[in-house]
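Re-run with default settings, no changes from the original entry. Doing this only to confirm the output is reproducible before filing.
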Amino acid sequence: MRRVMGTSLLAGMLLASGLVRSARAQQAEVAPQLVVIDTDIGDDIDDAFAVGLELESPELKVLGVTTAFGNTELRARLAERYLEAAGRGEIPVAAGVHTETTNPMTQAVYARRGPQKPYPDGVAFLLDQIRAHPGEVTLIAIGPLFNVQAAIARDATTFRKLKRVVMMGGSIARGYDDAKTGVRRPPDAEWNILQDPKGAQALLAAGVPIFMMPLDSTQIHLEEPERDAIFAHGSPVTDQITLLYHQWKVGNWAHSPTPTLFDPVAVTYAFRPEMCPVQPMRIEVDDKGFTRRTAGPANAEVCLRSDEAGFLRLLQERLTGKDAAGAGTRENGFQQ
């Protein structure tokens, strides 16, 4: 009886191993998507998680990183230090449109220790990548849209040759949750849109496919057990995230130490769209930064509910290389 059970178990293990190898072979046969990530990395910490997720996702080939909002040169130094420390120094970094802001850059100390050199024009870099790969580039926009607005103004014809824009931004039916009580608020002027409403208006009118991940689907919190598992992993990527997290935490002493992972949801959608199903909508942006659903032909695909448990499992698995089965026990299913 033991011999029969052992033989059956061995056969099952061999079958499972074969299925895994087959799945990996099929994945290897699919060419990775070409992406440019446009980020305001250095303020909130979710950008650092988003970049890390991108680096650890073989479905994506990162053509470059462009920095947005405020001191974009300093943000570029941060991004390049991060990429070099993570072993991905071949990825180019370009500085986008400089803007004036009083918003504190919480990870400025890390950034100032990055390379001191002039950086290419981020808007020109984006347009060059689109020209080199017409119809193939996904722009993952996870910051205010100043670079997008400038690219459209500079060369709208080339910008329309993007494959699509996947963006974190907007607030359709749900605003920022109350930080202390968790109570959901009515729609807010979401940060990325609020900083540059004209950029969002230009993008929605640009004629490119837009996939929007608003506050409704991106307020996913990384609680202490999941954070510790990532920080303790000790890889080149997670070490940089850990450093940046602690600078963000000190720089946000009045905030919760639990980060909200808005931006990684947009990265995840780029290769796992089933985790944030979208629906067509017509979105209008007013000059105060509010995004409103209106009647008329759709100009965006919008995700209002995401698979929070599935996202947390995926994030932990990608960043640590380990099965994160326990990450889904907090809350199963989609955000409501």
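The chain has one domain: 31-329. The longest strand covers residues 60-67.
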